[in-house]
From TrEMBL:
PANTHER family from the UniProt entry: CONSERVED INTEGRAL MEMBRANE TRANSPORT PROTEIN-RELATED, SODIUM/HYDROGEN EXCHANGER FAMILY/TRKA DOMAIN PROTEIN
The keyword Transmembrane helix appears for this protein: yes
TM region positions: 6-23, 60-79, 91-111, 117-138, 150-172, 178-198, 218-236, 288-312, 351-373
Domain (Cation/H+ exchanger transmembrane) ranges: 18-369
Annotated organism of origin: Streptomyces ureilyticus
Protein name: Cation:proton antiporter
Classification of source organism: Bacteria, Bacillati, Actinomycetota, Actinomycetes, Kitasatosporales
Length: 419
């Protein structure tokens, strides 16, 4: 068997560099996400040190990375508590759509784009990055914070909106008819509703099927089923991340705890590859020409996301600092905005350069703003590993403390702590 020396060498250098960047980030209690994105800029096409032999592996690994991020995030919640939270945040979802899609639509109109370009830009400014935010909440030990259910509710409603939006955009870009668009949207939404119903009604059966005393069997079963569900979701133009999140919600009790233990190292590896790939997808030469317009759009939509998170968190009873943490967490844009531009790019040349620059700005600045959002004294120390099931340490106070766990009817699985 031929050994691909160039591939092995490039992957070795990449992983070593990511390790060093992660060490630097954690030394200053930062999330490593912005550094991974900048590294991707340096290693991608047009960067200072391209890695052509590793590019296919990185692109494939990025798809797995976002799936694992949302799968493990779903393990920290149950279908019942999550659907309750989503229902409570219907008003937040409306506010999110109005505040964040409108600036993109207005910017598209001012730039002279056609209806397809306006629709695409509105979607790109509306949708936050589930992958980046899921990693941030873990890195900054905020999974148990009182505002976190509001953040996750907004994110998943956005992903469900994408389930209807992406088929609609695909039909519009291809010049399809209105009835084809309606049919595509209806099929996607029916699939999402069916998946939620299955998770709600038969989630305990899923946990039993995927459980096994052997860690290797747990890894193979859960990862295999998750990738199959993610692929089926993509076939009907529903995000693969949504499918992975629903699998995580369906796992309960000891099965969820075991899955989290087995999957976490794999998630961390492929999550780093995902952020690297996001940076590699951008040619640095495309950033400067559209920088002024992208900065203006980023400032406006950063403020509207801040307002969205503030509103959603305050509805959950979080204090002012919790509202600011929720708002800054939602600022980052990423994978969905890139997908939208991928669909619209064949007919919207200028739009691709604008959104690429816009996404990179917020993908880098969003995590930095989140890191320095107001928090309780002592929370800015580098995060120490801890057992999430152990819950918060003594002295957690105010809106920064973990939310009270609702009564469980299905498993008794422990709530995720702040670490």
């Amino acid at each position: 068997m031929h050994t691909p020396i160039a591939l092995l060498l490039e992957l070795g250098v990449i992983l070593t560099a990511l390790s060093l960047l992660g060490t630097v980030a954690r030394r200053f209690a930062l999330s490593p996400v912005p550094l991974y994105l900048v590294a991707g800029l340096a290693l991608g096409d047009g960067g200072i040190a391209p890695v052509p032999a590793a590019r296919d592996f990185v692109d494939a690994g990025a798809s797995i990375g976002v799936i694992l991020l949302l799968l493990v995030l779903g393990l920290d919640f149950t279908v019942r508590e999550f659907t309750v939270s989503v229902r409570r945040h219907r008003a937040s979802a409306v506010v999110d759509l109005a505040l964040n899609a409108t600036p993109g639509a207005v910017a598209g109109w001012l730039l002279g784009l056609d209806a397809t370009g306006i629709l695409a830009l509105a979607g790109a400014t509306y949708i936050s990055s589930s992958g980046i935010i899921a990693r941030l909440l873990g890195d900054l030990r905020r999974l148990g914070n009182r505002e976190t259910p509001a953040v996750l509710s907004v994110l998943v409603v956005e992903d469900f909106v994408m389930a209807a939006y992406l088929p609609l955009l695909a039909v519009v870009v291809s010049g399809g008819t209105w009835w084809q668009a309606l049919l595509a949207v209806a099929a996607a939404m029916a699939a999402v509703v069916a998946a939620i119903a299955v998770s709600w009604r038969w989630g305990h059966h899923v946990s039993r099927i995927l459980s096994h005393p052997d860690a290797e069997q747990v890894l193979l079963r859960i990862l295999g089923i998750t990738l199959i569900v993610a692929a089926l979701a993509e076939i009907i133009h529903v995000s693969a991340a949504v499918g992975a999140f629903l699998i995580g919600l369906a796992l309960t009790g000891a099965a969820a705890d075991r899955a989290r233990t087995v999957l976490s190292p794999l998630r961390d590896l492929f999550a780093a590859v995902f952020f690297l790939a996001l940076g590699m997808s951008v040619d640095p030469g495309d950033l400067l020409p559209m920088l002024p317009a992208a900065v203006a759009l980023a400032v406006v939509t950063g403020a509207t996301k801040l307002a969205t998170g503030w509103y959603a968190a305050r509805r959950d009873g979080a204090g002012r600092r919790g509202g600011l943490r929720a708002g800054t967490a939602l600022i980052a844009r990423g994978e969905f905005s890139v997908v939208i531009i991928g669909l619209a790019a064949p007919t919207q040349g200028r739009l691709a350069a604008l959104v690429t620059t816009y996404v990179m700005l917020l993908a880098i600045c969003g995590p930095v703003l989140t890191r320095f959002a107001p928090t309780r004294p002592g929370a800015l120390r580098p995060p120490a590993p801890r057992n999430r099931a152990a819950g918060p340490g003594p002295g957690a106070v105010s809106d920064a403390c973990p939310r009270p766990a609702p009564p469980r009817q299905d498993s008794g699985r422990g709530e995720a702590g702040p670490g």
